Amino acid sequence: MKFDYCEFENESEQSIEIDMGCRFDDEPDELYVIQIMFHKDGTSLGLKLLFNGLDCKYQFKPEEKSSIIDYILHIVPDTAYKDWFEGSLHL
Description:
The protein is globular, with a radius of gyration of 13 Å. The chain is of the alpha+beta class. The chain has a 5-stranded antiparallel β-sheet with strand order 1-2-3-4-5, covered by helices on one side. The mean pLDDT is 93. It contains 1 helix and 5 strands. A hairpin with a 2-residue loop joins strand 4 and strand 5.
């Protein structure tokens, strides 16, 4: 899984939506969107894989979830949300 971009949208004082572009190794020409809702305490409120705006109903593998968290933790310090989370991120 390779990540293409990461966008943050503050949904409320207590939740945030993160949209991440990703490409799977077996489909390198297709761009998917991983949509995650997080509570301020770092708990996931929802995780979806979208293709052309449609929910793929995909079940992420543990190593994919780990890669997603690692990527977010790498990106967050360079954003306005660097101090937003009050706890560790969990999917």
